[in-house]
Each structure stands twice: as C-alpha cells, then as structure tokens.
Amino acid sequence: MKQAVKDIKITFLGTGTSTGVPMLANDHPVCLSQNEKDKRLRASILISWDEFTYVIDCGPDFRQQMLRENVRSINGVLFTHEHSDHTAGIDDLRPYCFQMGAVPIYLDAQTLKSLEQRFEYVFKTENRYPGAPRIQVNLVDQAKFILNNVTVIPIKAFHGPLSITCYRFNNIAYLTDVKTIDLSEKEKLKNLDIWEKKLNLFSGDNKTSISEGIEFDDLSNPSLDKIVGETAAQTLREEVELIDEVYPPFSQEEYLDGKLQPVFFGSALNNFGVKELLDAFIEIAPAPLPKKAEERLVDSKEEKMTGFVFKIHANMDPKHRDRLAFIKIVSGTFKRNAPYLHVRNGKKVKFSSPNAFFAEKKEIVDVSYPGDIVGIHDTGNFKIGDTLTEGEQLNFKGIPSFSPEHFRYVNNADPMKSKQLFKGLDQLMDEGVAQLFTLDTNGRKVIGTVGALQYEVIQYRLEHEYGAKCSYENLQVHKACWVEPENIKNAEFLDFKRVKQRFLAKDKEGQLVFLADSAFTIQMTQSKYPTVKLHFTSEFKN
Description:
Layout: E1 9-14, H1 29-32, E2 44-49, E3 52-56, H2 62-69, E4 76-78, H3 84-87, H4 94-100, E5 103-107, H5 109-118, H6 120-123, E6 135-139, E7 145-147, E8 150-159, E9 162-169, E10 172-174, H7 183-186, E11 199-201, E12 214-216, H8 222-228, H9 230-246, H10 252-256, H11 274-284, E13 291-292, E14 297-298, E15 306-314, E16 323-331, E17 334-335, E18 340-342, E19 347-349, E20 355-358, E21 361-364, E22 367-368, E23 373-377, E24 387-389, E25 406-412, H12 418-431, E26 435-439, E27 445-449, H13 453-466, E28 470-474, E29 479-485, H14 491-499, E30 504-506, E31 512-516, H15 519-528, E32 532-535
Parallel strand pairs: 3-4, 4-5, 5-6
Antiparallel strand pairs: 1-2, 2-3, 7-8, 8-9, 9-10, 11-12, 13-14, 15-16, 15-24, 16-23, 17-22, 18-19, 18-24, 20-21, 25-27, 25-28, 26-27, 26-30, 29-31, 29-32, 30-31
C-alpha cells in the first residue's frame, strides 16, 4: 500500500548560467558584485522527502554544492540532458558509491549515449578501474515512475533541437534550460503548487530592442534597493504584498472560462513588457479548440488539414500591390507546396510561399499546426470564410458581418480615377474594414461602418494606396437588415419590395438588405410582413 509522503523540500544548489556567476574574465557589475546572492553555481536542485534525498543534475560544481549543504547521502541522481554544466560532476559520485554501492541514475537514452562516450570508464562492465564511480542506470521515457512513494512524471521539453527531460514530483515540477515545450507536455504541468514570481529591470537606453535586463527572484534582495532606490523598492514590496493579500491566486481554469482577465503592464515606446506578455501567453493560452463547420464539428487533433480564411489584407507592401489572405489552421498540418481543396471554387490549390508574421517581420514557413495563422498571396480568389481541406467538403462558418452603425454615400471625387476607386473599394471591403451596399433604385454606393473614424481610414487608404479620391454624404439609416423571405414569389414579399424599394440595396455578396431609418420602421415592417424575416447579421442561414 502506498504511504502518504510528508512535505517535499526543494533546495536550489545552483541557479547560474552554464558558465556560472560570476563568469570568468567578465567585468559585468553582477560578476564584480560582493553580494553572496550574485555568486551562483551551475543549475541543480536537491529534492528530499521523509528520509530520501535525490539530486537533479550534477554539474562541475557538484562537489562544492554537496559540501556546502552537508549532504551525507543521496538516493539517486536524475539527469535532464547531456550538457556538461548538468553532467560533468558525475565522477564526484564516488564518495557516495563508497558509502552505498552503485548510485541509481535516471536519464533518457540520448543523455545515456552521450555520457557513455564521454565517461567510458564509468560505464564499462569489464576491466573497470576500481576507483571509478559505480552507477545503476534507469532509462526514463514518457512513462511516470515511483521513487519512494512519490510519483515522478517526466516532461519532455526542448532547448533548441536538444531534448530536455524535466520532472514533476507530485505537485512540484522542475524545468531547466527550456526554450520550447509542446502543448501535450504542458498538460502535465497543471495544478502545481508553485507559481514563479520574479522582477525584471530593463534599461531605457535602447527603445527599439529588448535589453537583457536584471532579474530578481526575491524582492527582499538588498541589491534591489541599490538599483532602484530604497523608496521605490519599499513601495514595490508594499504594493506586491497588497496584491497578494487582496487578490486571489491566478486560476487558469477561470481565465479559460472567461471569468478572470489578467492585466499586463508594459511600454509600446520602451523596451520592456513584450517578452513577459508573450511568455505568459504561451503559458496560459488555451490549446486549439474544435471548430464548427456546417457539416460537422472538426476537432483540432484530427490528422487531415482543415483551415479557413478569417482575414484579407490588401497592399501590405504598396510597392508590390500584394494582397494576402490569412488562414487559421483548424486541424492537421499545413505544408508548403501541398495541394489543398478550395471548397467554394472546387479547385485544388498549392502555396509556394506561405508566410508567418510577427509584428513587422515575416518569413516563409514550411509547416504550420492547429492554431497557427498563415498568410498566403491572393489574386482575388479568396473571401473571408473560405475553407481549405485535403479533399473533404467542409464549410466553416465565417465571421458574420454585423449591421453597421454609421452610413454614408461615397462619391468619386476624381472622375478620371473611377477604375481605381472601385477597385480600392472592392479590395478594402474584402478586408472587412467596412461594408458596401449598392442601392437598387439608382446604383449609388453606400459605405456602412461601426465607427465614424473608419471613413477617414478608407479615404486615406484609397488616396495613398490606389490613387483615388472620394467624398462622403451623410445618409440617415438606423440599421441594415438582411432580408430572408419565406417565399420569393409570394404576394407579401413582392409588396414588401414595392413599398420599400427606395430603402433596398444589395451587399457585396448580392444579398438583399433593407436600410431602415428607425427602430420603429423595423418594428412596423416586421408586423406588416410576418413572412419576411429581418436579420442584423449577414450570416443568418443555418
């Protein structure tokens, strides 16, 4: 029967970089500091419970760390990866071997192979040197295992291309040298007892790039007073203490349920806040969710690729007049140059240069996964809501067009540029920045927007991107209502069209729209024509 374990104790043996702190031949203020907390050995921890003690990683400072903590015996060593700053102290296991015999070590196959090559004398089974450390190898894969009544869950992460094996002991996890981690492995980190708190101080000297900064894991560190001043440091400590007392702990479950909203503070002009926001986003953001198509629910874990166009942007580079369609990958793997079915057109398409974007940077990507956004060059073939699949007939529901709140006639201010104006309006409406309606009676164009400032944006982009000028006239419209008759041939609908002819228009997709001048008009119309349904979004058909 499994016995209950008392509290697990963690001792940080080292929290320094691969070179340790202070670093040799370096004049950085931290390396010259006399503060004991600035003298940090290579990364390693001591983890103990009841009468058992284990070490995670034994680097070049292992002997010094064990002497400092007066560790008289250990029950084993767990290795995270093969780098020397985590393994070079393996020879110093000898004193423990003299005491207890072979020391159990736990590591993955890749780390074992590296250690066997570098420390051949340790792993030899024949003609061994008598003084070599004796070890008992335990290979670790993705399966959990038990160490003296404690469940240990391996967590796979990556340091660039190098695999890292991190460990979770009950509700405590230790991760080191982690650069990336898969979503499936992140699931193993749920419901931990520890949430990392640290302070990063950045320099304001360079406003265009992120500086390395100075990191504090403990706000009681006296170095903080020297750097920011005693008053500012004390104020920070008091405010953080107030937050800890007043606000409940962060709950990712409540965040994902929409009940809690984290707030991040940073600067758009200076060099801090962005990295912390992105790191936190990676940590707490939801995994890709299933997406409802008209035919069925598509799970993000399905193997076959599906995706849909959710945004179109024209003239991202005005010099080249390029137009990009942005596709969200719903399931499967999107691959460069692979053929996919454009469901609406019924044609197979390939993409030789799909792009990934981050701020002003863009790069060609070979593979994209569920949740990723891919930009593809478009010559006008795509519309918002279009679906791509590997052959299945699916139609994802697009982003609905809600009724605008502002309406204006748009006039051509330069008759010589009519073609440019209509092309610009057509492409800008494809982006979804506004909605274009064409009156049935005289063909005049009406632009509807959510905010009044969008008219200035459209006017500016038409002039600077398309070389066309326009002017506006106000139009008194309360709501745009998309019309759905039960029968297009019945007398009631024909009477509706005759009476409301002056207020009827077509949207960009050719759907009939009723431009009502007041809420009272909508109410009276619905009462007089019950078989003619009015909708406030364009995507009303199930």
